[in-house]
Amino acid sequence: MDTGNVLASLGVEGATAAAHALSLPAEAYGNDAQLEVMWAMKAYNHAEVYYNLISSVDPKFLKLTKSDEQIYTKFREAFPDLSIQVLDPELLKSVDAKEKWRPFCNQFEGVVEDFNYGTLLRLDCQKDYTEVNTIFATRIQFYAIEIARNREGNNDFVHNANSKTKQQKKDKS
After folding, report:
1. 61-95: pLDDT as tens digits
2. Looking at residue 1, what is its pLDDT?
């Protein structure tokens, strides 16, 4: 999806209107298809930027929020045994999982901006965002899991693979 062309086609006024629309509470809308497309574009852009970031910078040194330490600590307290390398969607989406995740997520209201916004999350951290490797999660779930993946070395594979590809291209030229 080339979101740059879509956003450019909106023009300044359209982009401003879209930004305003995305800032309104969910209760202000029904099931508006255009709004869903805007949300999907925003989530896709976030995923693309994040993947490019972990591909380019050693993930161990990334700081995703000003509250990374608190998010990581609380995440591992609440989910000490959650395997984050390859996520089981049921551990995020089932009724039981939602009951466990809800108090974790809600403690970050007012701490992490847009903590409950929808975000794309990779299931297998060694793979890119694809239809089969991506689920919809809240922003705080994304932060908790990706901060843990970065700190625990799970995202090193993506970074190292990209570094190796860059080096091979450099060697060929």
Report:
1. 999 999 999 999 999 999 999 999 999 999 999 99
2. 43
Q: How many helices and strands, by DSSP H and E, does the chain display?
A: 7, 2
Measured CA to CA, the distance from residue 9 to residue 4 in angstroms comes to: 8
Tokens for 79? 């989910």
The DSSP string of 143-169 is HHHHHHHHHTTTTHHHHHHHHHHHHHH
Full set of structural domains in the chain with CATH? 3-172 (1.10.3560.10)
DSSP string, 113-143: TTTTSEEEEESBTTS---STTEEEEEHHHHH
Give this prediction's pTM: 0.76
